[in-house]
Amino acid sequence: MHRTARLLLGLTTAAALGLGPPATAASASAATASTASAARAAETWEWGPTASSDRRGWAGGVVRSSGTGLRIHGDLYDAAGARTCSWLKIKWLSDRGRWHTKTFRNCSQSRILSFRVNAGYMLTASAKVCRGTSTRITGRCSGWEGVWSQGG
Between the CA of residue 136 and those of 49, 86, 95, what are the distances in Å? Predict the structure, then answer.
């Protein structure tokens, strides 16, 4: 019994290391294609939607890796008939231990505001959506929602 377990363990290890029978060209190219698509998928993280407490403003988007770090992309929506503006506040902690903040405003009930933040190499990022006037945030904010965090 002990010898059979050792033989099965050896075969499993050989298969994991790729020492098994040679693969055909079709299966090798399929494996390469799936590895490439998995690599692309690992470079994009979705976040949102995050809504203000009165549900009249919301935002969502993706975080993508680039040659210079990470970029936060997304859209900020303002509900029709709201008569005020939707605000998005994003904060992130850089790899140097410094907090950064970027704020976006959308006062158009008919158009979506697309935004992009070049966050560089960051450790964590959070966002919240608020309501306000055309000049400042007045309240009705969501809580800080995690957009991205190093290590998941």
Answer: 22, 10, 30
Place of tokens 């994009």: 44
Percent of the chain with pLDDT over 70: 71
CA 24, 28, 31: angle at the middle one, nearest 5? 145
Rounded to two decimals, what is the model's pTM? Answer: 0.70
How far apart, in whole angstroms, are the C-alpha atoms of residue 130 and residue 138?
8
Give the model's pLDDT for residue 109: 85
pLDDT at 28 over 60: no
CB atoms closer than 10 angstroms to residue 94: 15
Reported in sequence order, the residue ranges of the chain that DSSP labels E, i.e. its strands, are 44-51, 57-66, 69-78, 85-94, 99-106, 113-120, 122-132, 137-139, 145-149
Alpha helices, DSSP H, located in the chain: 2-16, 25-41
User: In the 8-state DSSP scheme, what is residue 121?
Assistant: S
- Is the pLDDT score of 14 beyond 50? no
Beta-strand relationship, 122-132 and 137-139: antiparallel
Show the tokens assigned to 101.
């903040």
Question: Do you find a cis peptide bond into 49, omega within 30 degrees of 0?
Answer: yes
